[in-house]
Design a protein that fits this description.
With about 25 residues, the chain is mainly α. It is built from 1 helix and no strands.
Length: about 25
């Protein structure tokens, strides 16, 4: 489960970096 959650977080961070959106 932890690995899946990490994958989701990584995907989210990747999206944020791609769109250059500031993390709130």
């Amino acid at each position: 489960m932890a690995a899946d959650k990490q994958n989701l977080q990584d995907a989210f961070l990747n999206h944020v970096r791609k769109t250059k959106i500031p993390v709130t």
